[in-house]
Amino acid sequence: MADTSRARPSTISLIGMPGCGKSSVGVLLAKLGGLRFVDTDLDIQRLEGATLQESLEARGYRYLREVEQRVLLEVSLADAVIATGGSAVYSAAGMARLVDAGAVVYLRTPLAVLRERVEGAPPRGIASDPQQSYAEVYKERTPLYERFASVIVDCDDTGPGELAETILEKLSR
User: Fold this and answer.
1) What value does the mean pLDDT of the chain take?
2) Is 134 helix (H, G, I), strand (E, B) or coil?
3) Quick check: 161 pLDDT over 50?
4) Cβ neighbour number for residue 120 with a 10 Å cutoff
């Protein structure tokens, strides 16, 4: 179990591709760190009154990114673990706010693992150009995730609990 007695950030934001585990890890990280858990995808769904996939189909990926930016700029960040949507990195203003608030952790996951997770799940509402393949989206977003991250955690076969502990350990150093 991670030693949470040392100083920890009051805000930890998780970024990464859809399927990397931001929500699963985020809930456990919040519990271990004594923080609130915020999932911006759920906030978007509440705001829109529709799932991400429904919003994407009805209004397109650019609109979904705009709503995501609005949520990133308005959500309370204090004393929280923030699980962002995969396209959060397209919002310079939203990412600047997250970076200013505390640690930004990129859950770096191999493309093959992500593909397996995403293909085995219901449609996720990935805010990207429908002409792009998942691999192309991965290639486009990876440098953005790396640029904004203050910490990078490699996620392959590691479970959410172990990842949450690893994140807290890295942030306590």
Assistant:
1) 90
2) helix
3) yes
4) 8
The predicted structure's pLDDT at residue 130: 83
What one-letter code names the amino acid at 86? G
Distance of CA 70 to the CA centre of its chain: 16
C-alpha distances (whole Å) from 114 to each of 57, 74, 135 are 22, 29, 10
Q: Locate 23 and state its tokens.
A: 């929500």
Structure tokens at 61: 């990926």
In this structure, what token pair is assigned to residue 74?
A: 């308005």
Q: What is the C-alpha to C-alpha distance for residues 68 and 53, in angstroms, rounded to an integer?
A: 13
Residue pair 104/13 in contact by the 8 Å Cβ criterion: yes
| 3 state SS of 16 | coil
Q: Which two tokens stand for residue 108?
A: 């770096």
Residue 6, pLDDT > 60, answer no
